[in-house]
Amino acid sequence: MSMLKVGDRLPEFKLTATVDTDINKAFTEISYDSYPGKWLVLFFWPKDFTFVCPTEIVAFNDLNDQFKENNAVLLGGSTDSEFVHRAWRQYNKDLSNLSFPMLSDIKHELCNNLGILDSAAGVAQRATFIIDPEGIIRFNMVTDLSVGRNPEEVLRILRALQDGGLCPCNWQPGQNTINVAEAA
Question: Thioredoxin domain: which residues (predicted)?
Fold first, then answer.
C-alpha cells in the first residue's frame, strides 16, 4: 500500500499506548476518536532501544507544551509492544517522564493503513503526520530510517496550517502571510 497523502482521511484505529512507567497506570487505549476537536501530530519511529529515535522523542517531548498551546495532541509510536515501550522508558532516563502517549502498533495495522511500514525492515518508517480536527491529513513526511527529523519544523508547519493564510518559505507565527491582491 502506498503512503496516505495530504487530503486523505486518517484511518480509524484503536491501539494500546504506554503513558507511564508505573505498571498500575502504564497502559491505556487510544483510538481515532480519543481527541475530538483537536489537531493530531502523529509520529512514528522504527524501533525502541535504538539511537536516533530517543533523540527525536525527547525533542518532541520538549515541545509538547507548545503543541498543546496550539490545540494539538502529540502521539508517538512504533511497531514495538506496549511492554517494550514501558521497559524502554524505565531503562532510558530521558524517556521516563514523557508527556505524550507511546502507541503500540504491534500488529502493524495502523502503519499498514498509513502506508508507512518499511517492507524490508518490517518496522514503521520514520514518518510524521499532522491531522486536522476533521481527521484530514494536512502534512506528511518520511525520512530515511537513519535520519532524524526536526520537531521544531513540525510545530512551525502546524502553526502555519492553523494560520490559514498563504505562508511563504520560512514563515514564522506573527509574520505576514502572502496577500494575493498585493502580490499580483
Answer: 4-163
| DSSP code of residue 95 | G
Assess if residue 91 is contained within a domain: yes
List the grid coordinates of 24: 498500575
Sheet containing 14-18: order of strands: 27-31, 14-18, 102-104, 72-78, 39-44, 126-131, 137-143
Please give the tally of structural domains in the chain: 1
Q: Is the dihedral of CA 171, 172, 173, 174 positive or negative?
A: negative
Neighbour-count burial of 53, counting CB atoms closer than 10 A to its CB (0-12 exposed, 13-18 middle, 19+ buried): buried
Domain extent, residue 100, equals 8-163
Report the amino acid identity of residue 68.
K
Which residues are catalytically annotated? 53
The single-letter DSSP state of residue 116 is -
Q: What is the pLDDT of residues 81-129, one digit of tens each?
A: 999 999 999 999 999 999 999 999 999 999 999 999 998 999 999 999 9
Predicted TM-score (pTM) above 0.90:
yes
Residue 138 falls within a domain, yes or no? yes
Is residue 94 within 8 Å of 58, Cβ to Cβ?
yes
The C-alpha atoms of residue 122 and residue 63 are separated, in whole angstroms, by 29
